[in-house]
Amino acid sequence: IARTIGLRFFTVYGPYGRPDMALFKFTDAIVNGTPLTLYNHGNMKRDFTYVDDIVQGIELVIKRILERDKPLNEIYNIGYGEQVQLMDFVEEIEKNLGRKGTYDKVPPHPADMPATWSDTSKLQKLGYKPTTPISEGVEKFITWYKEYYNVN
User: Fold this and answer.
1) How far is 114 from 129, CA to CA, in rounded Å?
2) Average pLDDT of the chain?
3) Cα 69 to Cα 3, 65, 66, 111, distances in angstroms
4) pLDDT tens digits, residue range 86-121?
5) Are strands 36-38 and 84-85 parallel, antiparallel or unpaired?
6) Count of alpha carbons within 13 Å of 85, Cβ hemisphere only?
7) Can you list the positions of beta strands (E) in the chain?
8) Nearest Cα to Cα of residue 129 among 62, 83, 78
9) For the whole model, what pTM was predicted?
10) Higher per-residue pLDDT: 54 or 66
C-alpha cells in the first residue's frame, strides 16, 4: 500500500535550533552587539512555528498513516497559522534578552518571500492545535540560549 506524505514546515524555531536561522542569528547579534541584518528593511511577515507544535503535527500525520489501510497521497502544512511582523519577533527577542539591538536594514534578498503563512486547515481536521505563540516560544529559546551559552 503506497502511503506518501509531504510535510511543509513553516519557519521552525526553538532550543537547539539551526544557527543559520533568524532567531539564532538575531539573538547572537544582539548578545554580541553587532547589527542585525534585516532584509526588505524589516518589512517581512513570517509564520513562526515553535518546534513542539511541529512535533504535534508530525505525530498526528503519523497516526493518520498508521490508521489508513488504503493508499494515501497527502501534503500537510505544519505552521502556527498566523503571520507575525518580523519587527515584532525582534522585539520579543530584545525583551527577553533585556537589551536592544541595532539594525542594518537592507533591500530584499532575491531568494526571500516578503510573507509566509501556513494554511493548516487540513491538519486541523486531524486535531492539530498549535499552542506556542511567539511570546512563549521566544522566551523558551532565550532561556535555553542564556543557559547553553552562559549569557547573563
Assistant:
1) 26
2) 95
3) 9, 8, 8, 40
4) 999 999 999 999 999 999 999 999 999 999 999 999
5) unpaired
6) 6
7) 3-9, 12-13, 36-38, 45-46, 49-50, 72-78, 84-85, 103-105
8) 78
9) 0.92
10) 54
Q: Pairing state of beta strands 84-85 and 45-46? A: antiparallel
**Distance separating alpha carbons of residues 80 and 12, to the nearest angstrom:** 9
Q: Where are the beta strands (DSSP E) in 30-96?
A: 36-38, 45-46, 49-50, 72-78, 84-85
- Cα separation, 77 vs 110, whole angstroms: 24
39 in the Ramachandran plot: left (φ > 0), alpha (ψ -120 to 50) or beta?
beta
Q: Letter for the amino acid at 77?
A: N
The pLDDT tens digits of the residues spanning 43-57 come to 999 999 999 999 999
Q: Which residues contact 75 (CB under 8 A, 6 or more apart)?
A: 5, 6, 7, 8
What span, in angstroms and rounded, lies between the C-alpha atoms of 87 and 94? Answer: 10
Summarize the confidence of residues 27-55 as an average pLDDT.
97
Question: If DSSP codes are grouped into helix, strand and coil, which group holds residue 104?
Answer: strand
- CA distances in angstroms from 120 to 4, 36, 145, 147, listed in the order given: 18, 31, 29, 33
Instruction: Compute the distance between CA of residue 61 and CA of residue 66 in angstroms, rounded to an integer.
Output: 9
